Structures are given as C-alpha cells and as structure tokens.
Amino acid sequence: MYSTFLIALREGLEAALIIGILVAYLVRSNQRKALPALWAGVSIAIVASLTFGAFLSFTSTNLSDSGEKLFAGTTSLVAVILVTYMVFWMKRIARGLKNELQSKLDYAMPLGKIALISASFFAVAREGLETALFIFSNFKTISTDSSPVVGLVLGLAAAVGLGVAIYKQSVKINLSKFFTITGIALIIIAGGVLSYAVHEFQEFGALPGEDSYVWNWVNADPTITTLLSGTIGISTKISWLQLIVWAIYLTVTLRAYLAPKKVLVSNA
C-alpha cells in the first residue's frame, strides 16, 4: 500500500501540474476556446494509460509459467530504467518545465485542434504510461491483497486534490523539496522492483544463484512481509545476486541523484 500510494501521488501530481500549467496558460492568454481540445488530449492520454495497464495485466495472466516469469522480469527491468530516467529528467528540467510546455502550446495552437490535442496528449501520456508500467511491476513485488489497490486510489486522489489546490493557489508547497524527497523514495522502490526482476530472471533460468539465499524467513510474520515489500520492495526471501544488484543500484543511483549540481565559473 505504501509504495503504490507514493508512486500514484508522485506521478499523479506531476501529471496534475502539467495539466494545470497548460490550462492556466490558455486561460491567461484568452484561449479558452482551445480548452476542449486540451481536455480531449488529456482524456485520450488517461484512457491510453489505463488500456496499457490492462494490457499488461491481461498478457501476464495468459502466459505460460516460464513465459510469465520472463515477461514480469522484462517489464520490471524496463520500468526501473524508465522511472530512473524520469526522476533524473524531472530534476534537470523542473525549473524550465513551464516554459517548455507553453512553447509547445504556442507551436500547436496555430496548427489547429488536432495539433493541440496531440500536444496535450503527449505531455500527459508520458507520465501516464510510465506510471502504468511502474505500478504494474510494483504490484508484482508486494502483497496480493487489496491494500496496493487502496494505496493506488488514495495516492491518485491526493494527487488530484493537491493539483487542484495548487492551481487555485489555495495551498503552496515547496515543489523542489517535494520532488526531491519523492524522487529518493521512487529510487528506493525501483530498487525493490529491480530485485524482483532479478528473481524472475533467476526462476526463468537466465541468471544463476536462485537458491543461494542471503536469508529465507520461511515462517515470516505476514505483517513484516507486507511492510518490507510495501516500502522498499525487499522480500523475506532474497538471493545473494538480488541483494548485490539492489545494493549497487541504490548506491550508484542515489549518489548521482543527490550530487550537487556543478556550477560553471567563468574566468572572464
């Protein structure tokens, strides 16, 4: 529940902020007539994201046992790569995101409704498709009860509420700190998803060391299992290879993410 809530909150708020920037720009520039096309693009992006998530779930449940392991491992690995890239991308572009989105609208509006629908679609779809893939992969690493779904719904609801409040300027938060902190949390969750990907590749036979456990709590308390898998994505049964890959990923990625930006000093 905890990890799905955080993923939905972080990614949902990013999408809400993007939509808010686009809507605010059209309103301020007296282009309200373009709002239906904007919302059409947003709606298509949301439907595409939901369809993609349904496709992943359907495909996963209709594969053979070995095929499902390969599919789960591959999608988890792709999810980790995409989320890691997007976390660093947001850190790099956050300050210029508003200007970038507005310039895309300026380019699209003279071209007509289709161009505006496409611009809003691609602005939101990137977040939506990434979220669908990451949440699907994260669902695989955590408990099979209803708590992940509850976390997902609560996270999306909180993201929408925060997005609306920020748009109406009824609440102010330090977005830089918010995205930095949630970025760290997403990297930690991605580490758990990566560990799960290694496990699936081991069961498929593509990687060695499946039975070489660091620990294997056969009768682990379900509460502990849920807490570990729902936060850092680490199971109560983990192989040495899983632990090594997990530790290397977190060490390298967090160090790079938290490194201060280099400031170029001119000698002129």
Automatic annotation (TrEMBL):
InterPro entries assigned: FTR1/Fip1/EfeU
Keywords of the record: Membrane, Transmembrane, Transmembrane helix
Membrane topology qualifier: Multi-pass membrane protein
Gene Ontology MF terms: ferrous iron transmembrane transporter activity
One term under GO cellular component: high-affinity iron permease complex
Oxidoreductase recorded as keyword: no
Compartment annotation: Membrane
Residue stretches spanning the membrane: 6-27, 34-58, 70-90, 111-129, 149-167, 179-198, 238-258
A Pfam family that the UniProt record links to this protein: FTR1
NCBIfam families: EfeU
Name of the featured protein: Unannotated protein
